[in-house]
Amino acid sequence: MSGGWNTIESDAGVFTYLIEKLGVKDVQFEELITLEPDELKRLGKIYGVIFLFKYPTGETRSDTPKDGSFDHEAASNIFFAAQTIQNACGTQALLSVLLNKDGEVDIGKDLKEFKEFTGSFPPEFRGETLSNSDVIREVHNSFARSSPFIDETQRTATEDDDVYHFIAYTSINDTLYELDGLQPAPISHGPCTPSSFPDKIIPVLQRRIARYPATEIRFNLLACVQDQRIRARELGDAEALEEQEDKRSAWLWENALRRHNFVGFVGELMKGVTKAKLLQGEKVYEKWVEDAKGKTRKRIEDRRSKGIASDGVD
């Protein structure tokens, strides 16, 4: 098997540049803040949505899903891959949308060849082939946040960890499908044309979220849509085009920062600050340390007075 897959963030900029690096053209992701059909419709051409949620610990497969119905026949007629490796579900979810839209979207040479190669495979073999794809894995890992403390390729989740999972929803052959690699087959949520997708998907997502306690708010929803710059040019909206270009620049900067860890930089900075304080004399240094301790104690006392737990040092 190929090397490990690192964790990537559910972030519109990460997903947009990840698919561009895979060769997909004229597609981007947009984060959705509210579950309103109009918010989806204002984005123009929509290919699907990616939903991130906390996976219930101890949940097992069932012969019937909690919502919708399994479509075992569709598993061989559309692109559906079983998830066979940890941390790959984000990329697997976006591929579940795009590889089922290759008639509408230019998915690029590498993904087209991957889809053709796995076309006759059952879901389990598709999942294994995806997990062992060096091209897709290396692009995926290039967007992982750098960490000097944890080797994400070796670490496995424990029962005490919060485990999050990505799934895809899209309209295929005028049916709304939920594509979850941890399920035995695509889940059908009934008739749905591409134009009716915004109205059909929202109730499905609302029912999904309703399974959780009202206090659970750790969800994220990304829409896979046509590059918003294309729409802005078609409408002649110079302001919207400039806004989209600025957004792309910000995404590039954020993605560049993700590739670096700053522990060495912070360490050197602290050394420099400490050296400067020492050069000012022992009394100045001691006052600096005592001031820092005082601020820490005040923060702890303030948190305690508000009933917030703290692991601070007195």
TrEMBL record:
Active site: C89, H165
Site (Transition state stabilizer): Q83
Region (Disordered): 294-314
SUPFAM superfamilies tied to this protein: Cysteine proteinases
Gene Ontology cellular component annotations, sorted alphabetically: cytoplasm
Gene Ontology MF, one: cysteine-type deubiquitinase activity
The UniProt record lists the keyword Ubl conjugation: no
Class of this enzyme: hydrolase
Enzyme nomenclature, EC number: 3.4.19.12
Gene Ontology terms describing biological process: protein deubiquitination; ubiquitin-dependent protein catabolic process
Biased composition annotated in UniProt, kind: Basic and acidic residues: 294-305
Family assignment from sequence similarity: Belongs to the peptidase C12 family.
Listed name of the protein: Ubiquitin carboxyl-terminal hydrolase
Organism: Periconia macrospinosa
